[in-house]
Input
Amino acid sequence: METADLGTFTEPVLICGGAYGNLQSLEALAELQLSLGISDARVIHSGDAVAYCADTEGSVRFMAARGWHAIKGNVEEQIVVGGADCGCGYAEGSACDAASVRWYAHALATLSAGSRQWMADLPAQLAFSVGGVSARVVHGSVRQTNRFMFASLPDTEFERELDATGADLVIAGHVGIPFTRFIGNHCWHNSGALGMPANDGTSRIWASVLTPQPGGVSLTHHAIGFDAHTAATRIRTQGLPYGYADSLETGLWPSLDVLPEHERTTTGQALPLDGRTFLMAGRSSIAAE
Output
């Protein structure tokens, strides 16, 4: 897969993914970015700029105007080639698959030629280093854009993906639920979704910050409040699936089709990750603070 090298960061990097056409969540992220003093050149989006929410064109323009780094998610890949569906990896005939027909059609109909070109120009993956740690940014997995790499998967699944990169740290998106998991001397980090709550019964959205430390890097999860009412109203007035509008306000997903058993059992349980920091030193991991 095409990988763009961003070089070395010596200051904090803001990580997000899955903006999903939620302009209000992007505005909330920009406020966090400003409060942390992080420049646009140090913001990275791990794919799926548009999806469930209504403001597809506005969201792409918001990101493009700021010059944030981004990669193609499965949605960008499909839109660029004019695919018949979103390529999300949903089981055929599932509730998620049925709902995607409507929001994907909305995305195709509302994106300008300029926004499609922005998507086309995005790399598949990004590479960079920070605090002596080598990192790779992917969407689903290293070898498959739309693979769901949930936190509950066995170590062997993560090990195969990590071995395919040669990187110390893999930053991924796609699954919509934030987590940081150490596997031996490596780390798999998912910042969660920016455009949709994490099925934890709260209307919070998620991002994270990587900060160089002496001999390593810290990874801090951030829960973010946003104008869920406006974003939900936009979905309803555009005739998109109401289940996603409800999810923005309740924090509960309209379908659990894609979730493994462990993630299903934690539905509605508020994630305790806000402000939690994990430390990684070179090729060795240190327990969370």
